[in-house]
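Repro case for the chain-ordering regression, as requested:
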Amino acid sequence: MAMYRSHVLICGGTGCVSNGATEVTEAMRKELARRDLTGEVLVVPTGCHGMCEMGPIMVVYPEGTFYSRVTAEDVPEIVEEHIYKGRPVERLMYSGGEEMPTVPHYKDIPFYGKQHRIALKNCGYINPDNIEEYISRGGYEALAKAITSMTPVQVIDELKASGLRGRGGGGFPTGLKWSFCAAAKGDKKYVICNADEGDPGAFMDRSILEGDPHAILEGMLLGAFAMGANEGYIYCRAEYPLAIQRLKTAIEQAENYGLLGENIMDTPFSFTVHVKEGAGAFVCGEETALMASIEGQRGMPRPRPPFPANSGLWGLPTNINNVETWANVAQIIAHGGEWYAAMGTEKSKGTKVFALTGKVKHTGLVEVPMGITLREIIFDIGGGILNDRKFKAVQIGGPSGGCLTEEHLDTPVSYETLTALGAIMGSGGLVVMDEDNCMVDVAKFFLEFTQKESCGKCSPCREGTKHMLLLLNKISEGNGTMEDLETLENLANMVQEMSLCGLGQTAPNPVLTTLRYFRDEYVAHIRDKKCPAGACTALLEYSILQDVCRKCGICARNCPVHCIPGDRTSGYVIETERCIRCGTCFEKCPFGAIEKK
Amino acid sequence: MSEITLVIDGVECRGEKGDTILEVARKNDIYIPTLCWMEGLTPIGSCRMCVVEVEKNPKLLTACTTPAVQDMRVSTKTEKLKKYRLQILELLFAGRNHFCMFCSQSGDCELQRLAIEHGMDNVRYPFLYESFHNDATDPHIQIDHNRCILCLRCIRVCAEKVGAHTLDLEQRGWGTNIVADLGKKLGESDTCITCGACAQVCPTGTITLRDFVYRGRRNDCDDIVESICPLCSLGCRIKAWVRTGSVVRVEGLSGTSADGGQLCQRGRWELPKSTERDRVTVPMIRTGSTFREASWDEALTLAASKMKGALESGKAAALLSELSTDEELTVMSSFFRDTLKMDKVDGYYGNMLRGFVDGFRPFADQGIRPFTAAHNIASSDAIVLLDANPQEEAPVAASYIRVSTILERAKLVNISTVKNPFEGITDVDIRTTEKEMEDLIRTLRQGVEGQDVPEKLKEAAELLKNAQKPVIVIGSSLASYPSIVTEAVNLAVASGAFFEDGLGVVPMLRASNSLGALNTVTGTKDWLTDSDLDFLYVLSTGMVDEDKRALEAMSRARFVVVHTPFMSHPLVNMADVLLPAPAWYERSGHYCTLEGERRRMNMIVPPKGNVKGLSVIMKDLAAKLGHELAQASAAPCENIYASTAEPVAARTVSMKEEG
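-- result from build under test --
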């Protein structure tokens, strides 16, 4: 490889690309060419840095200067000042508020401070389209180690020792799962990577696929070696075109390097892998539905047993793990199971990637050791609640997860603790909510999603979620009764226990946890016909605070249904019966004289 | 199979390893409610009615899919389970239109029965009144999606048993719906063969047969009789529902049998409809252009008088239906052959049967049964069709072919002079002429034996070479060329098509008791076309239309006695004397079926009118002719299924040496 005095890493993740990272990269290349610096400075499009909210992100090495929200117009200045004159551009640096107005270095940013990156190790550092960059960071060393000096049993033992558990949500010990498939009889076995990430707001798998596709391939290769499989599938949702493209490039490169195909590294071990695009059904993330989909059938789950380890794809022994799980494998083999097991809690080892979103200052992707508290994630890494409002709840585990409250903030995050509280680890979605979020509304939002994504096969999920949603709608519109609350709870329990697959079994979680921790809010909707958070439109009442009002009449002029009669001398009043609760008056009032409650 | 014991509801139950909890419970008379489950179909555990609690397992498990394990402790009737089941039933009722008073299946509905059983006296959830469409595009089958509970039985039976896979799902979640093909209405479907299997398995009033709706409700019926369908050589076993003397519904007997409890369109509709047809109820004698009623004695005396002269001049003949039972064929054979020593005796399909027999002879001579039970097609891994169109000739055999090729991934080779009846699922399709057929099959056989073959036969030869259990299906039209039949069997032998019961050959015999007719009524040569007849006795079952050749012979004959149950035209127009016969549903007896077994037909309703048993009639007629009815020389099924050598011992025969 040629030597460069400086590397400019520009994030090429979906978030930054949609914010204009491609244009920034182009501008940077052009600018460097214009100044004849092409031979000295290398522009590297990388995977996701995690701090998507601040994108497009650019990191300039060797200094490690972190620029955020870079636009194409900023590029000449960066080249002129930083690369030419060695004076980093302060105005583009990350700002951590008054305490630290500018943070020049990547590693000093609090967002990254408490993170511990294993699955995301290479994301943001390497060019995912270049296998050599992956290899230069130790890539494929684990594979070489395993297939030349380890037995399949040793690989599985190493994984068992690591304590790695399924990162797709189930949390089943990966080593144990592998040993089932390894023990299954059959000449032909499959390994599958589940990249059908469908939780709203979750993008950890996408970032790994886009930022470090070779880590997944290496993980699958190791799994295939350990379990005696020689064919694999990566089932990736079609909504991730960039991920699919990068995977295909990675597969092609690995094949060219003899890391995929026949007799890998001149050993008897052979492995081929295919990318299969999913057509956008959430339920296809369920392993049996996913396999049905690969087989070309309608993606619907089937009851287990038989488990995929014995009868999976086309009835043959199959092992399915999700992207993040696979991404951890190579490093566990490279560094040993004990290294990995040193992190985390007693039963939940290693790290977990979370997609931190909602009312938090720094949204993005974070990888943290198990056992970290929610408070550390939300307040230390996430920087606290947006606009310094009060924390209300955090929805953890996506649409199948549950809402936890203030009192749970100091609970160490692990599979067991979350399940005990009624939430799940899930794939790692973290949605932070403040006082403006109505919990009935939140439950409704997630249930709307799962209800729409129910495959329709089993009756509890198909019919039950429909009626649960109807009840939630009824309550949020102020038409609920206390009896409805009981019906809702009964239904939720039934759907949870009776549904065929994980989708139905976890769909009631948001409802059940909000009922458990925020029952008062439900009661307020029913008994007082009020939404305490002011989010349920049907229950809002707008009124004019007469002592604040300056009688300017702006509200009356803008009201689309003309329900604010009055004049500039006697003042204005909102006629509640006619009000359609559109909120226009609230927005337009220059004096904050409109109150909604 | 090792036995296991487990405890269900406190009762020690025995089952076999591999049984599901439900299977063990059923074997031990423990009731577990089910809705989507159906015997013979792949269990999918979707309705969740059969959930049970298993000790030490925190999850509720579906009994229909969970394997029973030694020492398992299962509870099927806890309060929690009852509560949840009731909730599911209520949800199903609230979802679509399940207002029983408007439903044709009320009283004959599994959903309704479960609701009653679970004491569902109200529905706690709002009725959604969502309107799904009522698919009335098919003239025979109606699908009212408003009554569907998505048990998916119809989809499964259509895919797993019929092999048509016409039905599947569209949309998802609450909007999930059954569709035909890729989103068509049933009437527009290209793949539906209108067999009605979907209606047979539907637990509610969603899929109904328009002809039998309301009157075909099972709970309103007076009787259920097991019998067989006499319409083709497979002799599918049926259950017939009787209501006020009419058959109002027929169903395949068992989902676990080889045929999967299916019927074809003809069986499903023609059998019940036949009970409404016009009948010949009394003996009648022609007077000019009409008939007059007569007594049995008068009619038989007239027949005997005409027959006597004809017998003397050798111009008497008998044309007998191969749709008759073994017992009827025996009587016929003893009367015409052994008592009267007539040589002009034959069945309607005489030529076809003689063709097959001639073609099979070299192998029968080796002591090997040259054909196998039709259902073995379903377990075959390569199927060769030789001018066969099973959908016409024996429709359920077409289901075997589809299931085998689509689900079991068997290879399908079609060699035909006409259009391929299985377009789309055929691996190799070869078009030829009748003239070239024999050479082509021989060349293909030589290819299987390892010789070089022309390009167009290479793939087929390779495929047969690799097959473990191939089956050759010979179309009935090829029976005109016995040498082709022999070559076809040669191909089976060369390909190693050896089944336990015989060689892997399935001849598409048309009539239901063709095999039984071989020893009894089938003649040695064809006389029908060119005979100058003074007397012709015709025995018809009225279930299959007479062909042109038979009708022409009747119109040439100077005196015709037609013995038939139905006033079917033009048959009865040919009669000088018309004798009433019992219809298929009024008879009992046996059939030698192509499914490899002798099956029993049972009387479903007692005979109507002034009918007499065939043996009584023949005895009378013999007496009037001055004879006593002799013993039949051969039993119908004798030697038909016999095999003295193992099929693997079969040798191919050279057609050139054999002449």
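Ordering looks correct now. Chain B touches chain A through 35 residues (CB under 8 Å).
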